[in-house]
TrEMBL record:
<dbReference type="InterPro" id="IPR036388">
    <property type="entry name" value="WH-like_DNA-bd_sf"/>
</dbReference>
<dbReference type="InterPro" id="IPR036390">
    <property type="entry name" value="WH_DNA-bd_sf"/>
</dbReference>
<dbReference type="InterPro" id="IPR002831">
    <property type="entry name" value="Tscrpt_reg_TrmB_N"/>
</dbReference>
<protein>
    <submittedName>
        <fullName>Predicted transcriptional regulator</fullName>
    </submittedName>
</protein>
<feature type="domain" description="Transcription regulator TrmB N-terminal">
    <location>
        <begin position="23"/>
        <end position="86"/>
    </location>
</feature>
<dbReference type="Pfam" id="PF01978">
    <property type="entry name" value="TrmB"/>
</dbReference>
C-alpha cells in the first residue's frame, strides 16, 4: 500500500489549516500559483505585466501560474482591445465563494472515487 500524499497527510494533521493551504492541497497548486490567485483578488483585471511587477516574478513564470489557475477554473481571462490598436489579456479571479464551491466539488469527487475504490476491493 502506498503512503498518502505527504501534503494531504500534513494538512490533515493540522487542527485549523489556513484557507490558502487548503486551496493549494485541494487543487494541487504551488505556493507561487496561490500567491498569483490572491494577487488577482486584490487587483482584478490585471495583465501579466502588472502581475509580474506586483509579484516580483518574471512574465513567463506568471504566465505558467495563470495557465495552471485557468485549468483549475480559479481565474478567467478576458481580451481587452486597446485604444491604439491591438489587445491585452486581463485576468480575473474566481470569487472566494465560488472557489469554495469548487473546492467542495473537488473534494466530493475525490471522496466518491475513494469510496468506489474501497467497495471494489475484493481480496
Amino acid at each position: 500500500m502506498t503512503d498518502p500524499d505527504p501534503e494531504l497527510d500534513e494538512l490533515m494533521r493540522i487542527d485549523d489549516p489556513e484557507f490558502d493551504r487548503v486551496l493549494e492541497c485541494v487543487f494541487g497548486i504551488h505556493a507561487h500559483e496561490r500567491r498569483t490567485y490572491f494577487a488577482l483578488l486584490e487587483l482584478p483585471g490585471s495583465t501579466v505585466t502588472e502581475l509580474a511587477d506586483e509579484l516580483d516574478r518574471d512574465r513567463s513564470s506568471v504566465n505558467r501560474s495563470l495557465s495552471t489557475l485557468s485549468e483549475k477554473k480559479l481565474i478567467e481571462r478576458d481580451r481587452k482591445i486597446l485604444d491604439g490598436g491591438g489587445y491585452v489579456y486581463q485576468y480575473f479571479p474566481t470569487p472566494i465563494p465560488d472557489a469554495k464551491a469548487l473546492m467542495h466539488d473537488t473534494v466530493d469527487r475525490w471522496a466518491t472515487q475513494v469510496h468506489e475504490r474501497i467497495e471494489s476491493f475484493d481480496p
